[in-house]
Each structure stands twice: as structure tokens, then as C-alpha cells.
Automatic annotation (TrEMBL):
Species: Streptomyces albidoflavus
Keywords: Isomerase
UniProt keyword Isomerase present: yes
Superkingdom: Bacteria
InterPro entries listed in its UniProt record: DinB/YfiT-like (IPR034660), Maleyloyr_isom (IPR017517), MDMPI_C-term_domain (IPR010872), MDMPI_metal-binding (IPR024344), SCP2_sterol-bd_dom_sf (IPR036527)
Sample GO molecular function, one term: metal ion binding
Keyword Glycoprotein: no
Residues spanning the membrane: none
Name of the protein in question: Maleylpyruvate isomerase
Length: 231
């Protein structure tokens, strides 16, 4: 069940960790490649700053981005800022979003995200939490999927499993992360069809579902592991 108040607390904690890491990266470190293809660490931090402002637009009922081109241009512009200036952009944008979410009004209000996707306002804190937590790993600055809080990893695995539920290109799946609740995903099973069982650590499962890690640590029962479509 969505708990935006709890998610805001977790977001504050994750943002504090992010700002600590951002403060340790100098200009040379920001120019180095991140774990995301084609992006430097500066691109990742610039994206996080602009994502906070984009979600602020969502909360205010404005379009998330002026256009896809404007989104990309803003990220590029911020990626080459001096380290201190970029870290400050991340801090200030996060503070602006936190202030808006502190007085949200109706959590059940439907808001519009990118590409016509809609959701309840109550889900926005978690969506921002996902950005902050996963992109800290993407920075390649010492944080790994295994370092993410177990509560977050379980919640994000459930969220991603839900996103692939009903997708015609994903076979019926039974996901069994070790020590965490089992999840179902993929298209509906045909008569007599058994779901493909996928087992592994919660971190390895998250890495596969989020496109962050090769699925080498996962095991399957019932067939080969499918290639997942882009999120």
C-alpha cells in the first residue's frame, strides 16, 4: 500500500546520502563515465536536479517537461557545470520539491507524468525516491544495489513487476527474491501454461528488472530468462 508520508521520510534520507556523494565529486570525477551508456556522472546529477523540478511541475499541475528536446537540453547544460555549482543545483532543486510535497493537498489527486502516464499524487514521493536511489548507484561512486535499503528494494521490485504485468512480450513470471515476498509479472498464462520461476537475491532481481545489471545471478525454472522490453 502506498504510504506517501513514509516515502517522504525515506526520500529525505536518500537525498541526504546523494548530497554527501555529490559533495565529494570534483570536476574531473564528474567528467568520467557513469554506469549509464552515454552519460557522465555530471549528466546523472544534472538529470536528478532537473527531475526534481519536473516533479515540482507535476505537483503544481503543469506539464512535467516543456518538451523532450527541452528536457535533454537542460540535462546537457547542467552536466558540464563546475562540481560545486552542480551539487548546489541538486540540493536546491531537491529542497524545492520537498517543500511542495510537504503541503500536497489531496494525495488522491491524479497527476500527469511523461508521455501521458498518469498516477496518484501519493505515488510521486516514491517515484522520486526511485530516481534518487537508483541514480546514486548509476554514479558508480561506491554505492551498489546491495547497499540500497531492503524496504526500498522490495517496494521497487514490486513496482517494476507490476509495470510488466500484462505486457504481451513478457512471459508469465513468478519472481522469488530470497527472503522477500514472491511476485507475479508478465502476460496472463495460457491454459495449461506454467509461469517461468525466477529466483535470486532481491538486488539481482532489481538489477534485471530495472535494466541495471546482467542477470547472471538469477536462476530460472521452466525456460530461459527473457529479455525485458525497455521501461
Amino acid at each position: 500500500m502506498t504510504d506517501p508520508v513514509r516515502d517522504l521520510t525515506r526520500l529525505d534520507e536518500a537525498t541526504a546520502r546523494l548530497l554527501t556523494v555529490a559533495g565529494t565529486l570534483d570536476d574531473a570525477a564528474l567528467a568520467e563515465p557513469s554506469r549509464l551508456p552515454g552519460w557522465t556522472r555530471g549528466h546523472v546529477l544534472s538529470h536528478l536536479a532537473r527531475n526534481a523540478d519536473a516533479l515540482l511541475n507535476v505537483v503544481a499541475g503543469r506539464p512535467m517537461y516543456a518538451s523532450p528536446e527541452a528536457r535533454d537540453a537542460d540535462i546537457e547544460a547542467g552536466a558540464t557545470l563546475p562540481a560545486e555549482a552542480l551539487a548546489e543545483e541538486v540540493r536546491l532543486s531537491a529542497a524545492r520539491l520537498a517543500a511542495a510535497l510537504a503541503e500536497p493537498g489531496d494525495w488522491e489527486r491524479v497527476v500527469e507524468l511523461r508521455n501521458g502516464v498518469t498516477d496518484r499524487l501519493a505515488r510521486v514521493p516514491f517515484r522520486r525516491l526511485v530516481e534518487v536511489e537508483l541514480h546514486q548507484v548509476d554514479l558508480g561512486a561506491g554505492r551498489e544495489l546491495e547497499d540500497l535499503p531492503a524496504e526500498f528494494t522490495d517496494a521497487e521490485n514490486a513496482f517494476l513487476a507490476d509495470r510488466f504485468t500484462g505486457h504481451p512480450d513478457v512471459p508469465p513470471l513468478l519472481l522469488r527474491p530470497a527472503g522477500s515476498p514472491a511476485l507475479t509479472s508478465g502476460r496472463a498464462a495460457a491454459p495449461g501454461e506454467e509461469p517461468l520461476t525466477v529466483t535470486g537475491t532481491p538486488a539481482d532481481l532489481l538489477g534485471w528488472l530495472a535494466g541495471r545489471r546482467a542477470p547472471d545471478g538469477l536462476k530460472t525454472d521452466g525456460g530461459p530468462l527473457p529479455a525485458l522490453p525497455p521501461l
